[in-house]
Design goal:
The complex is a heterodimer of chains A (about 325) and B (about 675).
Chain A: H1 2-20, E1 27-28, E2 35-38, H2 40-58, H3 62-86, E3 90-94, E4 99-100, E5 104-112, E6 119-126, E7 129-136, E8 141-149, E9 154-165, E10 172-187, E11 209-221, H4 233-237, E12 243-250, E13 255-258, H5 267-283, E14 288-292, E15 295-300, H6 303-315
Parallel strand pairs in A: 4-10, 13-14
Antiparallel strand pairs in A: 1-3, 2-10, 3-5, 5-8, 6-7, 6-9, 9-10, 11-12, 14-15
Helix pairs in contact in A: 2-3, 5-6
Chain B: H1 17-31, H2 41-58, H3 66-84, H4 90-107, H5 111-130, H6 135-152, H7 165-188, E1 213-214, E2 228-234, E3 245-251, E4 253-254, E5 259-260, E6 277-290, E7 297-298, E8 300-301, E9 304-307, E10 313-314, E11 320-321, E12 330-342, H8 348-353, H9 363-375, H10 379-392, E13 396-397, H11 408-416, E14 418-419, H12 421-434, E15 439-446, E16 449-451, E17 456-460, E18 464-472, E19 476-480, H13 499-503, H14 508-512, H15 514-535, H16 539-548, H17 556-580, H18 589-603, H19 614-624, H20 629-644, H21 653-662
Helix pairs in contact in B: 1-2, 1-4, 1-5, 1-6, 2-4, 3-4, 4-5, 5-6, 6-7, 7-17, 9-12, 10-12, 11-12, 18-21, 19-20, 20-21
C-alpha cells in the first residue's frame, strides 16, 4: 500500500515536473501549480455530511438540515482557506550549505508572505524529510529548515521540493512542487590529527582592514537585495530578526593546504584531514589555499573560499 | 555518489495535555444536551475515560494499554446493546456515538485522533438536533462545533495559552464565511414531502393533551398545566369569546362514572361522516399551529367546513381527525362557521347511542330528571330549567373538587356541589339523557390568551374545557355550556377555566405581573415566529419564497435553478472574501490615490523609478513634459504635504484623490 501511494506520488511529481518546467528562485506559488485534494479525514467528513443531510431530510428536521448545511459550507470555506494558505507564497532556498559525511545537511527555505493576512501551518518537504512552520505573519519572512541525514561524501541532488498545508482543519491538503535543482556537496567528515608545520605562526601577521567580502565583522539587519548566502540563518532559526553577516576583507600571508602533506593515509582519510584543516583555518580567520591532484584553489578567506574548498573535497575523484 | 538518505516516515506529533484538554471539553459540551436521554452509566463512562486520559497526559504517561482499552470498549458497547437491543435510531445511535467519542479519547495519541473525535462530535450535534426545534440548542451546538474546529487547527508550538485565541479567531472566520452559503443551501435545497424511508421515531418528550376519556370524579392535573396546546392566528375577525370553542374529542359513551369516545367515533378510526348540514353565521378563517400530541384529532373552531390537510376528515361528531397521531407540529389553515344546522333528523342509531345511560346508576339524578321533565315537556324549557338549577343552587366552581365515589353524578349534584367543567358537563349530560334528550360531552379548548405583540391566540392546556351538545328537534346539535351558568361569585379564584366566559384575554398570571406577562408574550411571539418560519419551513414555504422573489410559476425545477445560481454567487463572494486580503494593497486612501496617479503617468510612459520620491519624480516629469509641469508639481506637492506635513493641511485627502481622478494625460 505504501509503495502504491509512493508510486502514485512519484507519477504526480513527474507529471508536474513535465507540466511546469524549471522554476527560478525565488518562486511564487501560482494558482496553476497549486493542487488541492481532500485528506482521508476530508473524505470521512464528506461521507458524514452526506449521512447528516439524509438524516435531516428523512426526519424532516429543519434544524438538523440547517446544521448539516452549515457544516457543508464550513468544509467548502475550509477548502478555500487551505488553497489560499499557499497561494502567492514566495519561497527561496539557501543553497550554500555545508554538510559533512555521516552528518546532516540542512536546507534553509525562506518563506515570504507578501499578503496582508498571515499564513499558518506550512510544511516544506524534501523527499521524506519535512519541516513545519507555525505561522508566517503578513509581509514577514520565515525560515523553515529541513534536515536531511547524509551518508557518504559526495553530491546530493534534489530536483524539486514540495510545499504543503493542511490548514485549517486538516480536511484538505494543498500542495505545490517547486522544480528547482537543490545540490548539497557532502564534504568528507573532518578528522585527522596531523598539524601543519607553520600552522601556529600565522596569528602575528599584520592585517589591513577594508570593507569586503572575506572576513566576518559582525551582523547587521537584513535588507531586500542582499545575497541570501550572507544570511545569518542560525540567528533567524533561533527566532531572531533576519540578519546578514557582514565581512571585512583582510590580507595575510596564505597557507597552502596540500594533498602531499597528508602522505601515508588512505584517500578518504587524507580528504578528511584536509577538511579538518580547512575548517580550522576558517575558524582561525587565516587565509588558505587548497591543492588537490588536478585541483588548485587559490588562497582566500571567508564563506566563498570555504565553500569552494569543501566542494572540491566533496567532488574529488581519484580516478579523474 | 550519495543519493539517498535512510527514509524516515512522517509521524504525527504526540498529543500534548492542552490539546487533549481542549478536545475533551468539546466532547463534554456536546454531550450536555444529550445527557438526559442517555443511560446514566454512559456519561459516567465517558467522564471516567476523559479523566484517566487527561491524568495520564498531565503526568506525561501513555494512554492505558491496548488490551485494556479493547476490553472496556467491548464491555461498554455490549452493555449498550443490552440496554437498547438495537443501534438503530437517534437515541441508541447517539448513545453509541457518545460512547465511541469517550473511548476514542481514552486511546487518543496523535492529531489524527482529534480529527476522528471531531467527526463524532459533528454527528452527535446532528443527533441532538434531529428531535428538537429549539433555537438555543442550534446556537449552542454551532458554538460547540466552532470550538471543536478550533482545536483541529495545528496549535502553535510556542502557544502558551490554553484557549488559543488565534485558532478561535480563524475558526470564527471560517464559520462566518460559511453562514451565507449555508443560508442559501437551507433556503433553496429541495425538501421532500415525507420521509425517504421509515425510521424509528425521533425521541419525543412527554406529550400532554386531551385524552379520549373523562372521569370527573378523579383528580385532573390537566387544567393546571401552562403548556401550549396550539396557537391560532385569525385571518378574519376573531369570533367573540362566547363563540371560541375549539372542538376536540366527543365523548358519547357513559358508564355511570367515565365518559368515553364511542367505538367508531372520533378516535377510533371510524370513517363515518356527518350527515348533511348547513352552516350559518359569519365565517372565520384561521391558522391553527398545533403542538404535537399523542392523538389523531385536530383542534378546530366549531364548526369547520374547510381545512388544508389532505388526509384529515370530519367524523359524524364533527371532529376533525387525521389517520396518524399528530406526532409533529403542524399548521392547518381552516374555515369555520359560527352556527350549524342539521338538515336531516338524527338517525335512530345515533339517537339511541346518545340517549343511553347505564341502568341502575346515579338513581338520585334520574329522579331529579323525571321531576324536572314532568314540569317541562318542551326540550328547550327543560334545558333551561337544568341550567337554572346550576345557577340558583349553591354550585361552586373549583379546580380542586373533592374526590367522588362510584355514583359520581349523584354525589356531585346532591352532596359536594363543587367541581370544574367536567363535572358540570357530565352532570348536565346525565340529566339530559335521563329525560330522553340525545346529548354528548364535547371536550376541547375555550378562551385562550391573546398575544397582542404578534396577533395570535395562545391556547394552553389550562384552557381545556368540556361542554355539552344537545339534539333539539328542528335545530340539530346545539351547544350548551353548563359551566357558564355558574354565578361568577361562586367561582373560586385561582382558576382560569371559566375566565373565558368573563374575560378571555386575561389569565391569572397575567393579572398578577403585567410586565412579566408582557415579556412572556413577547417571548412566545418570537417562539411562534421561529416555529412558523424556521422549524415549519417546507416545500410550500420554498415555493412561496420563489413567488415572493417574483419568479413566475415557481416549481421544483426553478428551485434547483435558484439554488444553483445562489450557490455560484455565494462561492464567488467567498472566493473574493478569502482572497481579499491576499493582495498587498495599500490600506489608506492617500496611498491608493498616489498609486493611481503613478499608474496614470506610467501609461503616459513616464513611470516612477523605485527610488524616486514624489518631489524628485515631479521634477523629472516637469523636465520631460513641460506641459504637465504645473498639475503634476501641484499634485506631488499636495501628496508630500498630506503625507509628511503637519496638520492642518491645505487640501484634504478626498480632494487630492478627486484631483487625481480628474487628471487626464494626453
Amino acid at each position: 500500500m505504501i509503495s502504491l501511494t509512493q508510486a502514485a506520488s512519484n507519477r504526480i511529481r513527474a507529471w508536474s515536473a513535465r507540466r511546469h518546467g524549471q522554476d527560478a528562485l525565488p518562486a511564487a506559488v501560482h494558482r496553476r501549480r497549486l493542487y488541492i485534494l481532500p485528506t482521508r479525514y476530508g473524505l470521512m467528513l464528506a461521507a458524514l455530511l452526506l449521512a447528516m443531510l439524509i438524516a435531516g431530510l428523512n426526519y424532516n428536521s429543519n434544524l438538523a438540515l440547517a446544521f448539516a448545511f452549515l457544516m457543508v459550507s464550513v468544509a467548502l470555506v475550509a477548502m478555500h482557506h487551505c488553497h489560499r494558505n499557499l497561494l502567492g507564497l514566495v519561497v527561496d532556498v539557501d543553497a550554500d550549505i555545508d554538510a559533512f559525511a555521516q552528518g546532516e545537511a540542512q536546507f534553509h527555505f525562506l518563506l515570504t508572505n507578501t499578503s496582508a493576512a498571515s499564513r499558518r501551518d506550512i510544511e516544506v518537504r524534501c523527499r521524506e524529510h519535512h519541516c513545519m512552520t507555525a505561522a508566517i505573519a503578513a509581509s514577514a519572512p520565515q525560515v523553515a529548515t529541513v534536515t536531511i541525514p547524509v551518508g557518504t561524501r559526495g553530491l546530493i541532488r534534489l530536483d524539486q521540493f514540495e510545499l504543503r498545508t493542511r490548514y485549517p482543519f486538516g480536511w484538505f491538503r494543498a500542495w505545490t512542487y517547486v522544480q528547482t535543482p537543490l545540490t548539497i556537496y557532502v564534504a568528507p567528515s573532518p578528522s585527522g590529527e596531523r598539524t601543519l608545520s607553520r600552522a601556529a605562526a600565522g596569528y602575528a601577521n599584520a592585517w589591513t582592514e577594508s570593507r569586503g567580502d572575506e572576513d566576518f565583522a559582525g551582523l547587521r539587519g537584513y535588507e531586500p537585495g542582499i545575497p541570501l548566502k550572507h544570511m545569518a540563518w542560525k540567528v533567524l532559526a533561533r527566532g531572531g530578526e533576519p540578519a546578514v553577516r557582514s565581512y571585512s576583507g583582510l590580507s595575510q600571508s596564505p597557507e597552502w593546504l596540500e594533498w602531499a602533506l597528508t602522505e601515508g593515509l588512505g584517500v578518504e582519510a587524507r580528504l578528511s584531514q584536509l577538511c579538518r584543516w580547512v575548517l580550522d583555518f576558517d575558524a582561525a580567520q587565516r587565509r588558505y589555499g587548497l591543492r588537490l591532484p588536478g585541483v588548485e584553489i587559490p588562497p582566500g578567506l571567508g564563506p566563498a573560499q570555504r565553500g569552494a574548498c569543501l566542494r572540491a573535497l566533496a567532488q574529488f575523484d581519484m580516478a579523474s | 555518489m550519495n543519493t539517498s538518505a535512510p527514509a524516515r516516515l512522517a509521524v504525527d506529533p504526540p498529543l500534548r495535555f492542552d490539546q487533549l484538554l481542549r478536545i475533551s471539553v468539546c466532547v463534554a459540551l456536546t454531550l450536555i444536551p444529550l445527557v438526559t436521554s442517555l443511560p446514566l452509566w454512559v456519561p459516567i463512562t465517558i467522564a471516567a475515560s476523559i479523566g484517566i486520559r487527561l491524568n495520564a497526559a498531565a503526568r506525561d504517561r501513555r494512554p492505558p494499554p491496548q488490551f485494556l482499552r479493547l476490553l472496556v470498549s467491548v464491555l461498554a458497547i455490549g452493555l449498550l446493546f443490552l440496554h437498547y437491543h438495537t443501534f438503530n435510531g437517534p437515541t441508541a445511535g447517539s448513545a453509541l456515538l457518545a460512547l465511541m467519542a469517550g473511548l476514542k479519547l481514552l486511546e487518543s495519541e496523535s492529531q489524527r485522533d482529534i480529527h476522528i473525535i471531531t467527526l463524532i462530535v459533528f454527528f452527535l450535534c446532528l443527533a441532538a438536533l434531529l428531535g428538537s426545534d429549539s433555537f438555543w440548542l442550534l446556537g449552542y451546538l454551532v458554538g460547540v462545533c466552532w470550538l471543536t474546529c478550533a482545536t483541529n487547527i495545528q496549535p502553535l508550538n510556542n502557544a502558551k495559552s490554553l484557549i488559543g485565541p488565534d485558532n478561535l479567531r480563524h475558526s470564527a472566520v471560517v464559520f462566518a464565511q460559511a453562514a451565507p452559503l449555508s443560508l442559501i443551501l437551507w433556503l433553496f435545497f429541495p425538501r421532500f414531502d415525507g420521509p425517504l424511508w421509515e425510521l424509528p421515531a425521533a425521541s419525543g418528550g412527554a406529550q400532554t393533551g386531551l385524552s379520549d376519556s373523562m372521569s370527573p370524579g378523579d383528580l385532573s392535573a390537566l387544567a393546571q398545566s401552562d403548556d401550549v396546546a396550539f396557537r391560532v392566528h385569525f385571518l378574519s375577525n376573531p369570533p367573540t369569546p362566547s363563540e371560541r370553542y375549539w372542538r376536540g374529542p366527543v365523548l358519547s359513551d357513559f358508564d355511570g362514572r367515565t365518559w368515553r369516545v364511542s367505538a367508531g367515533g372520533s378516535a377510533d378510526g371510524g370513517s363515518s361522516t356527518p350527515g348533511p348540514f348547513k352552516v350559518q353565521g359569519p365565517a372565520y378563517r384561521y391558522i391553527v399551529s398545533l403542538e404535537p400530541h399523542s392523538n389523531r384529532w385536530i383542534y378546530v373552531l366549531e364548526w369547520p367546513t374547510q381545512w388544508d390537510l389532505k388526509e384529515a376528515t370530519l367524523t359524524d361528531e364533527y371532529v376533525l381527525v387525521q389517520p396518524e397521531p399528530v406526532s409533529v407540529a403542524i399548521d392547518v389553515l381552516a374555515t369555520s362557521y359560527s352556527h350549524v344546522q342539521a338538515v336531516e333528523p338524527l338517525s335512530p342509531d345515533l339517537r339511541l347511542r346518545d340517549s343511553r345511560l347505564p341502568p341502575n346508576r346515579n338513581p338520585r339524578t334520574r329522579h331529579l330528571a323525571e321531576a324536572l321533565r314532568a314540569a317541562h315537556a318542551d326540550d328547550l324549557g327543560y334545558v333551561q330549567s337544568v341550567l337554572d338549577l346550576f345557577r340558583q343552587q349553591a354550585f361552586y366552581y373549583t379546580l380542586n373538587p373533592p374526590k367522588l365515589g362510584r355514583e359520581s353524578v349523584d354525589e356531585f349534584l346532591f352532596d359536594s356541589k363543587r367541581g370544574f367543567c367536567g363535572h358540570y358537563a357530565s352532570a348536565f349530560a346525565t340529566l339530559m339523557r335521563a329525560a330522553g334528550i340525545p346529548t354528548r360531552v364535547v371536550t376541547g379548548y375555550q378562551g385562550g390568551t391573546f398575544n397582542r405583540f404578534a396577533d395570535y391566540w395562545i391556547m394552553r392546556q389550562s384552557d381545556a374545557h368540556a361542554w355539552d351538545e344537545v339534539w333539539l328537534e328542528g335545530r340539530g346539535w346545539t351547544r350548551v355550556d353548563p359551566t357558564a351558568a355558574i354565578d361568577p361569585q361562586r367561582v373560586e379564584h385561582d382558576s382560569s377555566d371559566v375566565a373565558g366566559v368573563n374575560d378571555a384575554q386575561v389569565s391569572r398570571w397575567q393579572r398578577r405581573t403585567p410586565w412579566l406577562a408582557n415579556a412572556l408574550l413577547r417571548l412566545d411571539a418570537i417562539k411562534q415566529m421561529w416555529r412558523e418560519r424556521i422549524v415549519g419551513f417546507d416545500q410550500r414555504s420554498q415555493l412561496k419564497l420563489l413567488a415572493f422573489m417574483r419568479i413566475p410559476e415557481p416549481d421544483e425545477q426553478k428551485l434547483v435553478l435558484v439554488l444553483a445560481i445562489g450557490l455560484i454567487l455565494a462561492l464567488l463572494g467567498l472566493t473574493w472574501a478569502v482572497h481579499r486580503d491576499f493582495k498587498s494593497r495599500p490600506r489608506d486612501a492617500l496611498a491608493r490615490a498616489y498609486l493611481s496617479l503613478c499608474d496614470k503617468l506610467e501609461r503616459a510612459e513616464l513611470p516612477r523609478n523605485a527610488h524616486e520620491g514624489a518631489e524628485t519624480y515631479a521634477a523629472r516629469i516637469s523636465a520631460a513634459r513641460p506641459d504637465l509641469s504645473a498639475p503634476i508639481t501641484a499634485l506631488c506637492g499636495h501628496y508630500t504635504e498630506l503625507r509628511y506635513g503637519a496638520a492642518p493641511h491645505n487640501v484634504s485627502t478626498a480632494k487630492f484623490a478627486a484631483a487625481v481622478r480628474a487628471l487626464t494625460i494626453k
